[in-house]
Amino acid sequence: MKELTTEIVIHADVSLVWNTLINLDQYSEWNPFIREASGKIKEGEKLGIVVSLPSESQYEFNPIVKNVDFLHEVTWKGNFWVPGVFDGEHIFEFDVRGKETCVFRQRVKFSGILVPFIWDKIGSPCREGSNKMNQKLKKQAEAMAIKSRAESITRSLSNKISKVS
What we know:
By secondary structure, the protein is an alpha+beta fold. It has a single domain, classed as 2-Layer Sandwich (Alpha-D-Glucose-1,6-Bisphosphate, Chain A, domain 4). Helices cover 38% and strands 37% of the residues. The strands form two sheets. A five-stranded antiparallel beta sheet has the order 1-8-7-6-5, covered by helices on one side. A hairpin with a 5-residue loop joins strand 3 and strand 4. The longest helix is centred in the C-terminal third of the chain and has 50 residues. The N and C termini lie far apart (68 Å).
């Protein structure tokens, strides 16, 4: 088995990061690694996933959601061809570090008889793709956080101005 891990600090409420990650229909708008995704993040559900590696290779697979721990973790597991040949378990973790900060972590575990033979080809591109996804998720969630804070300040100021008038 081979495993890769990437993580990033995101300055946004974990609920914004969570909602961005589980909204699969929007992946094509922001996610450079998982270019297409369909289905629902619910245990036992089958997803449609298209992974686009930086080397321009695309892989389609249909993992099953194995675990959903609200605001903490989402795990799905799938395979190419048949189980045991090339399997992948993708774990997304959220580590809250404060009201407006969390660490987003991706762990991908590869297993199966082909892994030792293709790891040199996919390991580095998968890490690069995960890092790019992390950067875009950070940008997306932090932009929503800024917009939310600005709207809150505007409402607060409007209320204060109307009380003074």
